[in-house]
Design brief:
245 residues; mainly alpha; Rhopdopsin 7-helix transmembrane proteins; 8 helices
């Protein structure tokens, strides 16, 4: 197995630790942004695991999970956690309802597409990100699930990157909590790295996807940990931006 195909295994390990760390914070603090972050990161981790598995053998349900979670839902769910962090408004619950309904609808479409997969086109010699188009049915032939992925990915990219950069700017402007500035910048860069790799994959070049996922996982984990360092007693709270603690 090539080094490139080992990258999903590394991403899976990082995301497992990352997910447990975030969900533990949800259990202790019961704040919804930790829950959505944790669920989104778990989807990310499963997507990486599915890539690692599909580098060894074929399984249509692993492929189902890889596309549903890795390609479609992950970014939207992680980004929605940032929305819950930054906006304590009732309208956020409405967006949550739309996200849940949209996710269920996407799962149904993916289930239908899974029944039409061309398994004969699969090869363990090629990363799944570079051959999934040959395996999945065309949009007109039952692959309508492909139309849903841009909505989740764009929403997730805008909310996660935008929220991280906005929070970093507010902390920097007030000259407080420099660790939160650095942490939020790392989160934004991590999200952009997987966004760029995913975009290249959709354009036909999936050779950078595994590396982009690993870079994203590592940078976001470091960023979250760095931003979550205890607030110094002398520092004043910043009402305009939530910290996530």
């Amino acid at each position: 197995m090539s080094f490139t195909l080992l990258l999903p295994f590394l991403s899976t390990a990082v995301m497992l630790i990352f997910t447990v760390w975030v969900l533990q914070r949800y259990v202790v603090r019961r704040k919804l942004h930790f829950l959505f972050w944790g669920l989104g990161l778990a989807m990310f981790g499963f997507g990486s695991f599915a890539e690692a598995y599909l580098a060894i053998a074929w399984n249509k349900w692993v492929f189902f999970g890889w596309y549903l979670f890795g390609a479609a839902l992950t970014a939207g769910w992680i980004g929605h956690g940032t929305v819950y962090l930054l906006f304590r408004k009732k309208w956020v619950h409405g967006v949550t309802a739309v996200l849940l309904i949209g996710s269920l609808f996407t799962a149904v479409l993916m289930f239908r597409a899974t029944q039409l997969l061309d398994e004969s086109a699969f090869s363990t010699a090629v990363p799944i990100s570079e051959q999934y188009r040959d395996i999945m049915p065309a949009i007109s032939d039952g692959g309508a699930v492909r139309l849903t992925t841009p909505f989740f990915n764009i929403y997730g990219l805008l909310t996660l990157v935008g929220g991280a950069l906005w929070s970093a700017y507010l902390f920097w402007r007030k000259r407080v909590l420099p660790n939160r500035v650095i942490g939020n910048v790392l989160i934004a860069v991590g999200a952009l790295s997987i966004g760029l790799a995913s975009t290249l994959t959709r354009l036909g070049d999936g050779s950078y996807l595994f590396l982009g996922e690993l870079i994203s996982a590592v940078l976001m984990f470091i960023g979250f940990r760095y931003a979550a360092k205890p607030q110094p007693a002398a520092a004043k709270p910043v009402p305009a931006a939530q910290t996530g603690d």
